[in-house]
Amino acid sequence: MKDKTSLRLLISCGGTGGHFNPGLGIAKYLNQSGGKSMLLLGGKHAEAQMKTSADAGVDAASFLYHRPGKNPLQMLKFLKAVICGFRFSRKLIKEFQPDAILIMGSSISLPAALGAWSLHLPIFLHDGNARVGKANRTLSRIARKLALSFPAANSNTLHCPCELTGLPLRQALVDEGILPKADAIVKLNQLFDADFSPEKPTLLIFGGSLGAQKINSSFVMPHDDPAMKNLQVIHLTGPGKLAEMTEQYKNFPGKYILREASHEMGVIYSAVDAVICRAGGSTVSELSFFGKYALLIPYPFAAELHQNDNANYLVSGGGAEILYDTDCSVEKMQEFVKRFLADPESFRMRGENSKKTAHPDAADAVIQMICKNI
Q1: Looking at the structure, do residues 205 and 75 belong to the same domain, yes or no?
Q2: What is the DSSP string of 65-98?
Q3: Considering only Cβ atoms within 10 Å of each terminal Cβ, which end of the chain, N or C, has fewer?
């Protein structure tokens, strides 16, 4: 068995934040444990991710990538990118001399996987959703093992052994930990110049890194309902939506904080009693870690409706309920909020159920899985 203090690991995690952030978390953890990691990035976010990696003290390299398309020109660009990425990956592997490669999903990982396979480098996979994606399903044919964030809803499509490790959270969330609500409210007020009370029911609303117009437009509370005066809301609107939502909140009777996004999610999660949000893999894992009950509204255009599977997993543990996007409306949102205000303590208690499904040591579990299988 390889010791993690001497493990050298190449991590292919280009693409969206759902692939990149867990990969970065594993890389940071391995470096802190005495091992050595390097990230391999590609796609339209590669430049920003290279900067984030550098800021985190993690080495990274990137290559130009084009996703496959329907017309001949797009397919030609894709094939050229795969060939160039394959050559780049082989060169990087020879220079970095890793013990294994970890692939976090996405078609962007195909060139890296082919490069590793051609050099007989052990291949491991990680998937961030309850429904394992197409890229990882394909690559499971040449992988030694697949790390799962949740029990796989489509396990019959996988061709290598699997292990439930959980999804590595952003290290800042794990390091800060869960604060008592009263302490979190004090810190929240300092950060956002607010006047929230730890005694009042507090709700978080967000739609992922890009926001969610359907969620935003559906959160309209009756200004003449006396119960609404006790409600405190933190609403992360998404980029470019702040002015619109400021107007929408003009007659809101309770206290609220509006921001496009926030880097203080640990404090925010600790301060709230319930959450309204999408059901991405990272979000569901964060809800589990902080023990927050959620009204989950799965993104209807997620590949193979994988957010539905993520949501169903959290619901199965008693920590959430689902409102499908087609049913999301002002009336449905008001009905949920009224139930929440009528008995916020029951929502807090049900949120605790989510902690049973949490994997706070996911990064270590992934590393240990690799060490045991090389």
Answers
A1: no
A2: -----SSHHHHHHHHHHHHHHHHHHHHHHHHH--
A3: N
